[in-house]
Automatic annotation (TrEMBL):
InterPro entries the UniProt entry points to: Enolase-like_C_sf, Enolase-like_N, Enolase_C-like, Mandelate_racemase_C, Mandelate_racemase_N_dom, RHMD-like
Biological process terms in GO annotation: carbohydrate catabolic process
Keyword Magnesium: yes
CDD domains for this protein: MR_like
Obligatory cofactor(s): Mg(2+)
Keyword terms, alphabetized: Magnesium, Metal-binding
Domain Mandelate racemase/muconate lactonizing enzyme C-terminal: 147-243
Protein's name in the database: Mandelate racemase/muconate lactonizing enzyme family protein
SMART domains assigned: MR_MLE (SM00922)
Domain of life assignment: Bacteria
An annotated Gene Ontology molecular function: magnesium ion binding
Amino acid sequence: MAAITQVEIFMVELQPKVKRVDAIQSFVCQETPFVRITDADGAIGTGYSYTIGTGGPAIVSLLEKTLAPALIGKEADRIEQIWRELSFLTHATTVGPLTALALAAIDIALWDLRCQRARLPLHIAAGGAQQSIPLYTTEGGWLHLSPEALVDDALRAQAQGFQGCKIKVGRPIHEDTARLGAVRDAVGQGFEIFTDANQAFQVDDAIRRARHYEALDIGWLEEPLPADDITGHLRLSHHTSLPIAVGESLYSASHFREYLQQGACSVVQVDVARIGGITPWLKVAHLAECFNVAVCPHFLMELHVSLCSAVPNARWLEYIPQLDDLTHSGMRIEQGRAFPADTPGIGIDWDPQAIDAHRVAGSHHVIRTH
């Protein structure tokens, strides 16, 4: 083992490749806080998280002023101990997204460091359960797009070997069903169509809408209600045959436990950044496995491909390119399936020059042993 001697923090800002609009918001930009951790042997691990346009500077500040100084001198391999100590250090601001996103950047960097020192890829070090994961695309299913555009994207994805797509919902019911119906008529019955409401509905509306979506053989209804309304999700689950998917807006393993114990969801979409890193992500995935529930994580495909391959109950990976501008090479895709990288580390081929070119001015901080 080797002690942590330096923590480097900075933020990169990226513009989405396409316009992204859902039922409650637009994806304005991607703030991407980075953490690089160096140990006494000179090994370096890189971690990151993200926002969709707000809160990034607060995450950087939390890292700089509170979390990074607490890392100096810690043994880098004691990842579980470090996660718990940092979580307790920030207990007055947990559970919540800003703290979770800051913890995630550190935890991912520590896992990257561990895997590099062990000369293992993340998908093997974390379990090695699967060799590849089927993809569905969200990038052409945004709420502002016309039915014709939705159909064109779904057919293009189908031709490329993708096995499903996701369509945002939240328009009047007759418009949602018309849009979904147009895609179903185009792709046929052998192609999955998922829906995502982004927490836009109330319980009565969700129950009514689910009845209409059922006729189109929808794969799941994602985030139909506010994430903290577990009782509402339970009521909805009792009124529909549609699988209910939750997780991108949950920031604690305990929240997932409540959903699973009460039978309020059928699909877990745990996000490695929003849950606080790889350490809690794996706990949630294995918890879902104990309930015989599939894991289909939200966003961050470049990292989630390795985590999905690590666990046996991962079923789908969401295709939304995120890091193309910051990497030498992208995620390997063959016949609609994603394959994790076999290189040591978390499996992302960073381009340091591109990262520097996108770095936000004034966001760079270095904390080191004196």
